[in-house]
DNA sequence: ATGGCAGATGTTATCTGA
Protein backbone atom coordinates (compact mmCIF):
# COMPACT_ATOMS: atom_id res chain seq x y z
CA UNK A 1 0.00 0.00 0.00
CA UNK A 2 1.34 3.41 -0.89
CA UNK A 3 0.24 6.92 -0.26
CA UNK A 4 1.30 9.83 -2.40
CA UNK A 5 2.06 13.04 -0.55
CA UNK A 6 1.79 15.83 -3.03
CA UNK A 7 0.20 18.65 -1.08
CA UNK A 8 1.81 20.25 1.91
CA UNK A 9 -1.47 20.78 3.84
CA UNK A 10 -1.86 17.00 3.83
CA UNK A 11 1.66 16.60 5.12
CA UNK A 12 0.98 19.11 7.86
CA UNK A 13 -2.19 17.31 8.89
CA UNK A 14 -0.41 13.98 9.05
CA UNK A 15 2.39 15.57 10.99
CA UNK A 16 -0.01 16.86 13.62
CA UNK A 17 -1.72 13.49 13.75
CA UNK A 18 1.64 11.83 14.33
CA UNK A 19 2.30 13.86 17.47
CA UNK A 20 4.35 11.79 19.83
CA UNK A 21 6.21 9.92 17.12
CA UNK A 22 9.72 10.80 16.24
CA UNK A 23 9.29 10.83 12.49
CA UNK A 24 6.31 10.80 10.25
CA UNK A 25 6.37 7.33 8.73
CA UNK A 26 4.05 5.26 6.61
CA UNK A 27 4.68 1.58 5.98
CA UNK A 28 8.12 2.14 7.54
CA UNK A 29 9.14 4.61 4.90
CA UNK A 30 10.09 8.17 5.73
CA UNK A 31 7.78 10.36 3.72
CA UNK A 32 8.68 13.76 4.90
CA UNK A 33 11.26 15.51 7.03
CA UNK A 34 11.44 19.09 8.23
CA UNK A 35 14.83 20.59 9.06
CA UNK A 36 15.30 24.04 10.58
CA UNK A 37 18.05 26.44 11.57
CA UNK A 38 17.67 29.14 14.21
CA UNK A 39 20.17 31.60 15.63
CA UNK A 40 18.62 31.92 19.08
CA UNK A 41 20.94 34.63 20.43
CA UNK A 42 21.19 33.08 23.91
CA UNK A 43 19.61 29.65 24.39
CA UNK A 44 18.70 30.20 28.04
CA UNK A 45 17.34 33.71 27.72
CA UNK A 46 15.47 32.51 24.64
CA UNK A 47 14.12 29.28 26.11
CA UNK A 48 10.39 30.23 26.25
CA UNK A 49 10.51 31.45 22.65
CA UNK A 50 12.50 28.40 21.51
CA UNK A 51 10.13 25.92 23.15
CA UNK A 52 7.06 27.69 21.80
CA UNK A 53 8.51 27.68 18.30
CA UNK A 54 9.48 23.99 18.51
CA UNK A 55 5.95 23.11 19.55
CA UNK A 56 4.34 25.16 16.78
CA UNK A 57 6.75 24.37 13.96
CA UNK A 58 7.61 20.77 14.93
CA UNK A 59 10.83 20.41 12.94
CA UNK A 60 12.39 16.93 12.94
CA UNK A 61 15.94 18.28 12.99
CA UNK A 62 17.06 21.68 14.33
CA UNK A 63 20.39 23.47 14.13
CA UNK A 64 20.90 26.20 16.73
CA UNK A 65 23.54 28.91 16.81
CA UNK A 66 24.65 31.50 19.34
CA UNK A 67 23.83 29.44 22.40
CA UNK A 68 25.84 31.93 24.48
CA UNK A 69 26.11 29.30 27.18
CA UNK A 70 28.92 27.15 28.55
CA UNK A 71 28.69 23.41 27.87
CA UNK A 72 27.14 22.65 31.27
CA UNK A 73 24.47 25.34 31.01
CA UNK A 74 22.73 23.92 27.95
CA UNK A 75 19.02 23.42 28.88
CA UNK A 76 19.02 19.73 27.99
CA UNK A 77 16.10 18.76 30.21
CA UNK A 78 13.77 21.31 28.62
CA UNK A 79 14.90 20.27 25.14
CA UNK A 80 14.32 16.59 25.95
CA UNK A 81 10.92 17.37 27.47
CA UNK A 82 10.06 19.02 24.16
CA UNK A 83 10.80 15.68 22.44
CA UNK A 84 14.35 16.17 21.17
CA UNK A 85 17.69 14.46 21.55
CA UNK A 86 20.58 16.90 21.33
CA UNK A 87 24.30 17.32 20.89
CA UNK A 88 25.89 20.71 21.42
CA UNK A 89 29.18 22.54 21.71
CA UNK A 90 28.93 25.35 24.21
CA UNK A 91 31.21 28.24 25.09
CA UNK A 92 31.11 30.79 27.86
CA UNK A 93 29.42 34.07 26.84
CA UNK A 94 29.58 33.67 23.08
CA UNK A 95 29.05 31.39 20.10
CA UNK A 96 27.85 27.83 20.72
CA UNK A 97 26.04 25.46 18.32
CA UNK A 98 23.67 22.51 18.72
CA UNK A 99 21.88 19.85 16.69
CA UNK A 100 18.46 18.61 17.88
CA UNK A 101 16.55 15.63 16.52
CA UNK A 102 13.08 14.24 17.18
CA UNK A 103 14.09 10.91 15.66
CA UNK A 104 17.23 9.00 16.41
CA UNK A 105 19.83 10.85 18.45
CA UNK A 106 22.27 12.81 16.31
CA UNK A 107 25.45 10.79 15.89
CA UNK A 108 28.24 13.31 16.32
CA UNK A 109 30.90 13.32 13.60
CA UNK A 110 32.93 16.34 14.73
CA UNK A 111 32.53 19.49 16.84
CA UNK A 112 35.37 21.49 15.34
CA UNK A 113 35.85 22.76 11.82
CA UNK A 114 39.14 21.20 10.65
CA UNK A 115 42.15 23.30 9.74
CA UNK A 116 43.13 25.39 12.75
CA UNK A 117 43.87 23.74 16.11
CA UNK A 118 44.23 27.19 17.69
CA UNK A 119 40.67 28.22 16.85
CA UNK A 120 38.74 27.55 20.06
CA UNK A 121 35.44 29.20 19.08
CA UNK A 122 32.39 26.91 19.23
CA UNK A 123 31.15 27.56 15.74
CA UNK A 124 30.70 24.16 14.10
CA UNK A 125 29.13 20.82 14.91
CA UNK A 126 28.40 17.99 12.51
CA UNK A 127 26.32 14.87 12.90
CA UNK A 128 24.68 12.02 11.08
CA UNK A 129 20.89 12.11 11.54
CA UNK A 130 18.26 10.10 9.66
CA UNK A 131 20.67 9.30 6.85
CA UNK A 132 21.75 12.92 6.44
CA UNK A 133 25.07 14.54 7.28
CA UNK A 134 24.18 17.82 8.98
CA UNK A 135 26.78 20.54 9.40
CA UNK A 136 25.57 23.27 11.78
CA UNK A 137 27.67 26.41 11.53
CA UNK A 138 28.00 29.90 12.92
CA UNK A 139 30.35 31.77 10.63
CA UNK A 140 32.23 34.69 12.22
CA UNK A 141 30.69 38.15 11.89
CA UNK A 142 34.01 39.73 10.86
CA UNK A 143 33.36 43.34 11.82
CA UNK A 144 35.06 45.73 11.94
CA UNK A 145 36.45 45.32 8.46
CA UNK A 146 39.17 45.43 7.47
CA UNK A 147 41.00 44.11 10.52
CA UNK A 148 41.91 40.96 12.42
CA UNK A 149 38.28 39.94 12.90
CA UNK A 150 37.65 40.18 9.20
CA UNK A 151 40.81 38.17 8.53
CA UNK A 152 39.51 35.50 10.92
CA UNK A 153 36.19 35.43 9.09
CA UNK A 154 37.86 34.87 5.72
CA UNK A 155 40.18 32.19 7.12
CA UNK A 156 37.20 30.44 8.71
CA UNK A 157 35.40 30.65 5.36
CA UNK A 158 38.39 29.03 3.62
CA UNK A 159 38.39 26.18 6.15
CA UNK A 160 34.65 25.72 5.66
CA UNK A 161 35.04 25.68 1.88
CA UNK A 162 37.80 23.09 2.08
CA UNK A 163 35.78 20.89 4.42
CA UNK A 164 32.64 21.36 2.32
CA UNK A 165 34.51 20.10 -0.74
CA UNK A 166 35.38 16.91 1.11
CA UNK A 167 31.78 16.49 2.28
CA UNK A 168 30.51 17.05 -1.25
CA UNK A 169 32.89 14.45 -2.63
CA UNK A 170 32.00 11.94 0.08
CA UNK A 171 28.82 10.82 -1.66
CA UNK A 172 26.85 11.38 1.55
CA UNK A 173 23.60 13.35 1.61
CA UNK A 174 24.81 16.62 3.13
CA UNK A 175 23.19 19.78 4.49
CA UNK A 176 25.35 22.73 5.58
CA UNK A 177 23.14 25.15 7.43
CA UNK A 178 23.30 27.95 9.94
CA UNK A 179 24.19 31.60 10.31
CA UNK A 180 26.64 32.31 7.47
CA UNK A 181 26.84 36.04 8.25
CA UNK A 182 26.75 36.67 4.50
CA UNK A 183 24.21 38.41 2.32
CA UNK A 184 24.93 36.61 -0.97
CA UNK A 185 23.48 39.28 -3.30
CA UNK A 186 22.00 42.77 -3.28
CA UNK A 187 18.55 41.17 -3.16
CA UNK A 188 19.41 39.86 0.30
CA UNK A 189 19.93 43.19 2.05
CA UNK A 190 17.84 46.23 2.75
CA UNK A 191 19.62 49.24 1.23
CA UNK A 192 22.69 47.37 -0.05
CA UNK A 193 24.58 50.62 -0.68
CA UNK A 194 24.87 51.08 3.09
CA UNK A 195 26.47 47.67 3.55
CA UNK A 196 29.19 47.59 0.90
CA UNK A 197 31.97 48.10 3.46
CA UNK A 198 30.45 45.79 6.07
CA UNK A 199 32.04 42.41 6.79
CA UNK A 200 28.74 40.67 5.95
CA UNK A 201 28.58 42.14 2.46
CA UNK A 202 32.09 43.07 1.36
CA UNK A 203 33.16 41.75 -2.03
CA UNK A 204 35.57 39.28 -0.42
CA UNK A 205 32.75 37.84 1.70
CA UNK A 206 30.32 37.48 -1.18
CA UNK A 207 33.07 35.99 -3.34
CA UNK A 208 33.81 33.41 -0.64
CA UNK A 209 30.15 32.40 -0.48
CA UNK A 210 29.87 32.10 -4.26
CA UNK A 211 33.06 30.06 -4.39
CA UNK A 212 31.49 27.68 -1.89
CA UNK A 213 28.28 27.44 -3.95
CA UNK A 214 30.30 26.66 -7.06
CA UNK A 215 31.17 23.29 -5.56
CA UNK A 216 27.60 22.38 -6.46
CA UNK A 217 25.60 23.31 -3.38
CA UNK A 218 22.03 24.57 -3.69
CA UNK A 219 20.92 27.66 -1.75
CA UNK A 220 17.50 26.20 -0.91
CA UNK A 221 15.62 29.42 -0.17
CA UNK A 222 16.94 31.21 -3.23
CA UNK A 223 16.19 28.25 -5.48
CA UNK A 224 12.54 28.14 -4.39
CA UNK A 225 12.03 31.91 -4.26
CA UNK A 226 14.14 33.37 -7.09
CA UNK A 227 13.90 37.12 -7.17
CA UNK A 228 11.94 37.47 -3.94
CA UNK A 229 13.02 39.64 -1.03
CA UNK A 230 13.39 37.24 1.89
CA UNK A 231 15.11 38.14 5.16
CA UNK A 232 16.12 36.04 8.16
CA UNK A 233 17.50 38.78 10.43
CA UNK A 234 16.24 42.20 11.55
CA UNK A 235 18.31 44.16 14.04
CA UNK A 236 16.81 45.38 17.31
CA UNK A 237 17.32 49.04 16.38
CA UNK A 238 15.09 51.59 14.70
CA UNK A 239 12.08 49.31 14.38
CA UNK A 240 13.94 47.27 11.75
CA UNK A 241 11.43 44.43 11.87
CA UNK A 242 8.44 46.76 11.61
CA UNK A 243 10.02 48.40 8.55
CA UNK A 244 11.21 45.05 7.15
CA UNK A 245 14.74 46.43 7.09
CA UNK A 246 16.37 43.01 7.22
CA UNK A 247 19.12 40.76 5.94
CA UNK A 248 19.17 37.22 4.56
CA UNK A 249 22.14 35.64 6.30
CA UNK A 250 20.88 32.24 7.54
CA UNK A 251 21.15 29.70 4.74
CA UNK A 252 20.53 26.08 3.78
CA UNK A 253 23.12 24.63 1.43
CA UNK A 254 22.13 21.23 0.03
CA UNK A 255 24.17 18.62 -1.80
CA UNK A 256 22.66 17.49 -5.12
CA UNK A 257 20.95 14.38 -3.82
CA UNK A 258 19.33 16.34 -1.00
CA UNK A 259 18.32 19.09 -3.41
CA UNK A 260 16.38 16.61 -5.53
CA UNK A 261 14.19 15.82 -2.49
CA UNK A 262 13.55 19.47 -1.60
CA UNK A 263 9.80 20.14 -1.48
CA UNK A 264 9.34 23.51 0.17
CA UNK A 265 11.21 25.95 2.41
CA UNK A 266 10.45 29.07 4.32
CA UNK A 267 11.23 31.54 7.07
CA UNK A 268 9.16 31.59 10.26
CA UNK A 269 9.17 35.38 10.16
CA UNK A 270 6.34 35.65 12.70
CA UNK A 271 8.67 34.40 15.44
CA UNK A 272 10.67 37.61 15.07
CA UNK A 273 7.53 39.48 16.17
CA UNK A 274 7.22 37.65 19.50
CA UNK A 275 8.16 39.16 22.85
CA UNK A 276 11.77 38.61 24.02
CA UNK A 277 12.64 37.19 20.61
CA UNK A 278 15.95 36.68 18.83
CA UNK A 279 17.07 39.13 16.14
CA UNK A 280 17.03 36.13 13.74
CA UNK A 281 14.00 34.15 12.59
CA UNK A 282 14.02 30.36 12.07
CA UNK A 283 14.54 29.08 8.53
CA UNK A 284 13.37 25.61 7.44
CA UNK A 285 13.20 23.16 4.57
CA UNK A 286 11.10 20.09 3.96
CA UNK A 287 12.39 16.97 2.21
CA UNK A 288 10.31 14.17 0.71
CA UNK A 289 11.01 10.45 0.48
CA UNK A 290 14.44 10.29 2.08
C1' DA B 1 26.48 58.90 9.07
C1' DT B 2 25.31 57.80 13.62
C1' DG B 3 23.45 55.33 17.36
C1' DG B 4 20.17 52.79 18.43
C1' DC B 5 18.90 47.41 21.24
C1' DA B 6 19.87 42.99 23.48
C1' DG B 7 22.44 38.97 25.94
C1' DA B 8 26.07 37.44 29.04
C1' DT B 9 29.13 38.47 32.60
C1' DG B 10 29.14 40.21 36.80
C1' DT B 11 29.57 45.68 37.50
C1' DT B 12 27.33 49.70 38.73
C1' DA B 13 29.91 48.88 33.13
C1' DT B 14 32.11 46.15 29.17
C1' DC B 15 32.22 43.26 25.24
C1' DT B 16 30.03 41.43 21.28
C1' DG B 17 26.75 41.13 17.79
C1' DA B 18 25.24 42.38 12.42
UniProtKB/TrEMBL annotation:
The record marks 181 as: Transition state stabilizer. Belongs to the DNA repair enzymes AP/ExoA family. Residues 36-280 form the Endonuclease/exonuclease/phosphatase domain. The record marks 280 as: Interaction with DNA substrate. This is Exodeoxyribonuclease-3. It comes from the Bacteria. Keywords: Hydrolase, Magnesium, Manganese, Metal-binding. PROSITE patterns: AP_NUCLEASE_F1_1, AP_NUCLEASE_F1_3, AP_NUCLEASE_F1_4. One of its GO terms (biological process) is DNA repair. Mg(2+) binds at residues 39, 66, 179, 181, 279-280. Its cofactor is Mg(2+); Mn(2+). Probably binds two magnesium or manganese ions per subunit. The record marks 250 as: Important for catalytic activity. It holds the Pfam family Exo_endo_phos. The active site is at 138, 179 (proton donor/acceptor), 280 (proton acceptor). The keyword Lipid metabolism does not apply. GO terms for molecular function: DNA binding; double-stranded DNA 3'-5' DNA exonuclease activity; endonuclease activity; metal ion binding. SUPFAM superfamilies: DNase I-like.
Amino acid sequence: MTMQLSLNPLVRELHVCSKGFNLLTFTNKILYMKIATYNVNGVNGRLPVLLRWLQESMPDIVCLQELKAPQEKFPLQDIENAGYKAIWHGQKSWNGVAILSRGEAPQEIRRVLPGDPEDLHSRYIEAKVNGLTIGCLYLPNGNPAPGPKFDYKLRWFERLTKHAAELYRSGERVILTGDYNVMPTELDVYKPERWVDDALFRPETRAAFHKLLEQGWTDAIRKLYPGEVIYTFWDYFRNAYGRNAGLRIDHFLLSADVDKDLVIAGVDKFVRGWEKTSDHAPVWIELKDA
